[in-house]
Amino acid sequence: MKDSPEKIPVEEWAPAEVAELDLYEKREKIYTRKIEGFYQKLRQYSGWPLLLGYFCIPWLQWDDRQAVLFDLVNRKFYIFGLTIWPQDVSLLGLILILAAFGLFLVTSLFGRVWCGYTCPQTVWTAIFMWVEQKVEGTRNQRIKLDKAPWSVNKFARKFSKHAAWLLVAFGTGFTFVGYFTPVYDLGWQVYSFSMPLTPLSWVVFFTLATYINAGWMREQVCKYMCPYARFQSVMFDADTLIVSYNAKRGEPRGSRKRADDHAELDLGDCIDCKMCVQVCPTGIDIRNGLQYECIACALCVDACDSIMEKMNYPKGLISYTSERALASSDSNQETAHFLRPKVFVYAGVLCVMLAVFAYRFTSIESVELGVIRDRQAVNTATTSGVVENRYLIKVANKQEIAREFELAIESTSGAALKIVGAAQLAVLPGEVTSFRVRVQAAEEDVPSLVVPIEFVLTEKGEQYRHEARFVKAQR
Ligand code: SF4
Ligand code: SF4
Fold it and tell me: Most CB contacts within 10 A, which of 278, 336, 449, 455?
């Protein structure tokens, strides 16, 4: 029999202290203070047209159809008078490349203005914060409410806030789906509670995504999820506009009375009021230097300017500036240098892409003609010495009106070919119609085994061509 192992008391093998390591940073809830000022007006003036556009565009009509509709089911994108078919999808790729280079150019010139002024995450978070302020009150009132025990008042306020958020989120999700599904039908389906499962699940998905992103996650999206926040720094250089605190002027910081002469107190212009921190939607202190969390919304600029005004100090302790200007001995005199090699490269590529896009856009044909030779019935020779080939002709009418075309055949080899049967092709608006066509020629009129031919569609003098082959029968 084996000896049983010796038991070691737990206190001898367990370490005296077990350190707990948390891999995730604890999130501090941010209570932003409302602030008004020049840059906030700018944000409102730039945000409102974008919001109005987003919510109104799906409801606009154009030629008896939705003006902007990305019809994924029928694989057609309608953008006002333009219909993008699958054949033209490279145009969408070009639009994306144009948008990317536009963003590179703007970022290298003006820093993260996209993040601060037009990014949907910023705009929707601002709307949700506005709702929060209306329902729960000012920053101090919100902090007090969160600390207070649950009561009827607290429940009513929280319930109203979340209900309002969900309403905004639903409007956002519904509108987004309305860009992909006829929005008037969607509206009726909501009204009559008859929405099919597919659009319903997308509306629910985008509603929840908006509610969670703008209501709960907010700055976390910018800090941890947005890829642009990670790579935008490669577009930055010493002349890119950034929001920055002028430490040379502000330090040493310290509180004082308005009447005090801060030079005598050996203090800089920063009164350490922390207003710039309290208004910041990402909760950072810009006085600690440029941080990747900063979305360049300039709320801290407005906050600090309002304090400088009250203190009778010059504005601009926090301002839009550049690293070069900050490093210069007189940062107030140094201005940003906009004409730089990087800017020229981005602008050059953007111009080239614009030219390519314009060329592709203007060369979109309103008709797509496709020809497939019927290989099963190839080079059928009839007993009377006539050779016949059959073709499948596909005509895509990219316009929103019914059209009629005349089909003809041409051959450079001199072969006398003729289309048997009616050569008038009627195609409904926005439809692709296939026609079976028989082409015949006397055997002696076909000079070689394979003859290049061209099908020609004619409509009001306008011609659309497609090459094909006519194969001579072999006995
Ligand atoms: S708002 Fe201006 S004065 Fe107040 S702490 Fe910030 S930088 Fe200093
Ligand atoms: S530091 Fe200023 S500019 Fe940057 S996110 Fe905060 S408030 Fe906006």
Answer: 455
- For tokens 């059209």, name the residue: 403
Ligand 1 atom nearest the C-alpha of 318 is: 7
Q: What is the DSSP string of 218-232?
A: THHIIIII-HHHHHG
- What pLDDT does 332 receive? 56
Cα→Cα distances 1→4, 330, Å: 9, 89
Give the helix ranges, DSSP H, for 111-196.
Answer: 113, 120-136, 139-147, 152-178, 183-191
* Domains of the chain in sequence order: 237-333 (no CATH), 367-471 (2.60.40.10)
Ligand that comes closest to the CA of residue 275: 1
Measured distance CA(405)–CA(464) in Å, rounded: 10
The CA 139 to ligand 1 mean position distance, Å, reads 18
Residues of the chain with pLDDT under 50: 1-4, 475
Query: In the numeric block, which tokens belong to residue 310?
Result: 């009250």
pTM of the model as a whole: 0.79
Does the C-beta of 286 come closer than 6 Å to ligand 2? yes
Q: What pLDDT, on the 0 to 100 scale, is given for residue 304?
A: 97
pLDDT number for residue 322: 87
Could you give the residue ranges of the DSSP H alpha helices within 267-335?
A: 275-278, 299-310, 323-327
The residue whose two tokens read 């490269």 is 345
Using CA atoms, how far residue 109 sits from 75, 347, 352, in Å, is: 38, 11, 19
Question: Phi and psi for 198 in degrees, rounded to 5?
Answer: -65, -55
Q: Tell me if 279 sits within 8 A of 302, measured CB to CB.
A: yes
